[in-house]
Design brief:
Elements lengths: L2 E5 L2 H6 L8 E6 L4 H5 L6 E5 L2 E2 L3 H10 L6 E10 L2 E10 L7
Antiparallel strand pairs: 1-2, 2-3, 3-4, 3-5, 5-6
Length: 101
């Protein structure tokens, strides 16, 4: 996906008034990476990919490793916060190759 991630902490989400309690926060994107090209920006919260709810980084990692493949186009639902208000957006992302670890 070309991103750096963190879990959304439910207590923090409640404290800052977010209407969601689970998801994965996009901390940064790789310039011209798959997420950047799809329009995902730092601060977005991924809540669903390819029809699968995403609560944690572990959920996202498992999905990417076990069920999705490079070159596949998937719908990604993100929660975006702008000017104190939030909204859900669905974006289409083409998955890239996973980096070697």
């Amino acid at each position: 996906m070309g991103v750096f991630l963190a879990d959304l902490v439910p207590e923090v989400a409640a404290e800052v008034g977010l209407p969601i309690r689970e998801g994965v926060i996009i901390r940064n994107t790789v310039v011209d990476g798959p997420s950047d090209r799809a329009g995902i920006i730092p601060g977005d919260i991924v809540v669903n990919i390819a029809g699968q709810d995403i609560a944690t980084v572990s959920d996202l990692t498992r999905l990417l490793k076990q069920e999705l493949r490079a070159g596949q186009q998937v719908e990604v639902e993100v929660f975006q916060v702008a000017d104190g208000a939030g909204s859900r957006k669905t974006l289409t992302l083409e998955l890239g190759e996973r980096p070697q670890q």
